[in-house]
What we know:
Mean pLDDT: 91
Number of strands: 21
Largest sheet: 7 strands, antiparallel
Shape: globular
Order of helices and strands: HEEEEEEEEEEHHEEEEEHHHHEHEEEHEE
Distance between the termini: 60 Å
Radius of gyration: 20 Å
Helix content: 10-25%
Number of helices: 9
Amino acid sequence: MSKRTFLLSVVMCAGLYASACTNFIVGKKASVDGSVFCTYSADDYGLYATLRHYPAGKHAKGEMRKIIDYDSAVCHGEIPEAPETYNVIGNINEYQVSIGETTFGGREEMVDTTGIIDYGSLMYLALQRSKTAREAIGVMTSLVEKYGYCSEGETFTICDPEEAWIMEMMGAPGSKPSVVWVAIRIPDDAICAHANQSRITTFDQKDKENVMFSKNVIKYARQRGWFNGKDQDFSFNAAYAAPDFSGRRYCEARVWSFFNHFTSGMERYLPYVMGKGEYKEAMPLWIVPEKKISLQDVQAAMRDHYEGTPFALDSDIGQGLYQMPYRPTPLEYKVDGKKYFNERPVSTQQTGFTYVAQLRSFLPRKVGGILWFGNDDSNMVAYTPSTAAPHVNPSATMLPMPMQ
Length: 404
């Protein structure tokens, strides 16, 4: 087996078995108190996760930064260190920038094993180098365009106290730059989610304020024969990561469940998320909720097992004597030659760590950002507050929640 083939197989296996995560996003005008909320569950069997700390620092010219793969711990190479880096605790920094992710995989031939920067390193590099979400997008895209991106297709949540963004990225071997990406700002009054399925379809290529994309994102698809329509009809996920049964039933269903908590009429999308062959429409990238959303609402959504929906796990023999909302793995299995599957809820037993980032523009930055963090399944943890601001007691950053 060649080194390239071996590396590719490692990358693809990591995506299949390790990176099955969930992110929720709430704009500041969609929340009860004006907070931007973003969440992350890092779902990985055997993952023992710590609350990482990257201290702020000044770096001399010529100082280098090793790129250690987030999943495999392999060193991919080095890049120059930034002159100044900011304090980071977990997935939030001292300027209330927070970044999470879910892996969607996409076309296997787009994994660029010659790249240096993996998805995990990219997140923490951006957190150490960015004061805003927009700046983080610029840092992330400029780094991968210069040094290459070596992970599968990834959806990133990138937020600050004023804005919430979703960005999707894939390698583009043979292209310059060797990466394609699209970033879209979520409206302030809206909520969004992603869960291991590419969610960006068409996008307004003229909206420079709320949409950013790589110069080759459409051209590369044309060159590979994956798109031949008009530019304005280009869909990122149709070209690079079209949803199949698993992408809809195991992944988009989690997004549907989040939306279903906060708006009516989600039944119209059931044929799509159930993975049925025929459906009238896919879900939108975001929705405007029918009520303002609180911190407690977001935490409860992270504990979801499809209760009260057609996907509920409380009506079959699989729940056992204790009526458990969990099912043994794997998701798919065979009995007597017939294929079956289990539902995949937001809350799952293989979660390594989970958090809700609360970003508040109405407070000074040193007390505005809270990372509500927990190890293990979100349904089993008490989210505990932490802050990336140096020398601040997390308990001093909490305010009473307004009545709903």
